[in-house]
Please model this.
Amino acid sequence: MYGIPGINDSFLTGRQRRMLLMPGMESWEMTTEAVAGIRIRTEWLDARLRRTGCVRVTSPAGTDFSFALGAKSKWVPILGIVPLFGEIAITPQLGTENGVFVVDGPTASAVRPPAELDRMPLEIVVENGAIKEKRGDPEQLARLERTIANARPPVAVVDEVGLVTTPIAANDACWHDGTHQHDTVHIALGNNLDRDNMVHGSFHVDCEIKQPAVYLDGQLIMEQGAYCVPAVDVLPVS
Model:
């Protein structure tokens, strides 16, 4: 849009917040401590990833997906989206991504919209960084294939794994496509050709995983979408 590579990352990782006023915000259930805790939780996770070699994501729907962190990977704290969102956006080390992720939540690009979550989930099989197989509802699969076919360059890899750090349910109303929910992880398909410098490729489809568990080098840090480690589980979540 702006003709500047990486402009999305510049916006998303801004350290200053600008308040976005939405109708009904005065009735949202949250506390000052819970909002402040988004930054605390995000910065804790950022520091923890610096001594992590392997990330694994599982879910009750059948997700079991892992990847490595190393010299060829990247992650950035996402604290520039307002009003209530936080995340660590990870670009896995290319070639280390393996397993299956089951998209039982919605996706970006209207491939699997919120109104169609009663359909069979999408299952994406990844082997050594490459997308090997896609299964699921026929109509949604056809949309995914058309979406991928229209991307230039073609989509063939996992662009990002987003570990959400906001516990505030009111956040969810801010996302028109139903993604980036407060108790989920999203895994994005994309075509990032500058993985060492950017997280988001020019084409990027976020896919939502419900009730995820996240392991860092075997340590469980998230269960059913909620953080469960002493450093962060005492933070307010109401």
Remarks:
- The longest strand covers residues 157-164.
- Residues 1 and 7 are 9 Å apart (CA to CA).
- Residues 234-238 have pLDDT under 50 and may be disordered.
- The helical segments are 7-12, 32-49, 138-149, 230-233.
